[in-house]
Amino acid sequence: MNWRAVQAIYLFEMARTWRTLLQSIVSPVVSTSLYxxxxxxxxxxxxxEVDGVSYGTFIVPGLVMLSVLTQSIANASFGIYFPKFxxxxxxxxxxxxxxxxxxxxxxxxxxxxxxxxxxxxxATAALFVPLHIMHPWWMLTFLVxxxxxxxxxxxxxxxxxxxxxKLQMIPMxxxxxxxxxxxxxxxxxxxxxxxxxxxxxxxxxxxxSGFRWSFYEIADVSVALSLGMTLGFLAxxxxxxxxxxxTGYRLKN
Amino acid sequence: xxxxxxxxSVANLSKTYGSGFKxxxxxxxxxxxxxxxxxxxPNGAGKTTLISIICGIANLSEGRVTVxxxxxxxxxxxxxxxxxLVPQELHTDSFETVWATVSFSRGLxxxxxxxxxxxxxxxxxxxxxxxxxxxxxxxxxxKRRVMIAKALSHEPQILFLDEPTAGVDVxxxxxxxxxxxxxxxxxxxxxxxxxxxxxAEEMADRIGVINKGEIILVEDKAGLMQKLGKKHxxxxxxxxxxxxxxxxxxxxxxxxxxxREITYNYDTxxxxxxxxxxxxxxxNAGIRISDLDTTQSSLxxxxxxxxxxx
Lengths: 253, 310
Prior knowledge:
Strand content of chain A: under 5%
Oligomer: heterodimer
Strand content of chain B: 25-35%
Structural class of chain B: alpha/beta
Distance between the termini of chain A: 26 Å
Largest sheet of chain A: 2 strands, antiparallel
Number of strands of chain B: 14
Number of helices of chain A: 11
Radius of gyration of chain B: 25 Å
Largest interface: A-B, 26 and 34 residues
Number of helices of chain B: 10
Radius of gyration of chain A: 19 Å
Shape of chain A: globular
């Protein structure tokens, strides 16, 4: 293992985070606060309770997941896309580093950043609504698993993208709709039965359900299923990354 | 002690791109330890493709490449650790400082931190006073040197310089060549591509010429100059002549437009250059000479004649 290379990539990526602190940390916190004002205070005042918890409290796990998902993808995809775009990727490809080490550096940094962000948003939420986390270790497990999985997914998008437009396309056209329809702002049980079945095809439902369970012990699907689906998606992403490096797809001509 | 085994060995290397374009075709090339090897070739000849494959940036289609005995695919870590690469295009991060980006490269190659070495590299490349500057604020020539510093950060045994002096002013170019010479003295093998042929002529120990994906020649520079070097004897006449007398036809002389200069081309490798007999035949033909001089073909002439050959 070339640990020094992993460390170099990781610290390089984290340095980019600190350099763009405003855009990486402050803006998601501001937008999350806006969600609280709009959904929690304005709309939430008309909705009394969901599954026994107040609406404002109910949406907290979904909001955290929303940011963790989008930020993981954004960080990791940009992190690997940018060297490709400016050409500095040559150094990575000519260095004595394995694919695993490259992924560890980039995905590790992207996941770290979104985990920190998730925790900051959670702290911000605690200012608006009373929060109680029943299973803090499970909460962290789901947070870390989701951050890692979607950072891997973002890494794949960053390698696949050959322009800034494509870099935005998947997050905007696929991930954001799936997140909004994944039960961030409502319980799946509130949907008519036909829609409920369709919703269960959305992988994000399982992430948010499991994460919410760790807070309030309320879930749309069983926790084991949530965990299984998350791990399954992680495995799919890992196989895709393995294939990318094995074939040199969009990295080596 | 320098080992006699080549430090880089390329055997039957071919590269076909997805589009079907064959960029390299059956390349065989050995690079000797400690030499400066200049790879010359017109644009699109395959210079950069060859370097990219050896360095791990592009996959090879057929053949085998070893670096100090390590196969570049099977044993890529050992092979790549030995190589520093300065690509042709200016690829730099914009917002990093010079110090950070050079230190990053060292880490990427798995070497422990060594600020003294980085300091030496930056000083050698006249970048020391820019160490805390963001790369985006540097001029093109400085960025080029930052890329060289990155390549040298991990103390490579082999340095690839792909068109290293493109866009670098004359003074800086001279400074860069001093660095290259000092590296060679320190035992680093250097492979460079350049289109400034006088540079290859001045710097290289050996020269390879690549054209249309094939190595068409590898020679010691001195041997190449001698082997292919033509000399030109220019004769200035005392009085104008209208035409070369038929008696001198065998010499293939060229008469200048004003009829006052005759040029004779001869091979330096031949035992008999024909100069003595030419002079006496001229005298017999009644042509008087006021002055003469000789010139030798430059590497550039040799190069042009090689790649133009069918």
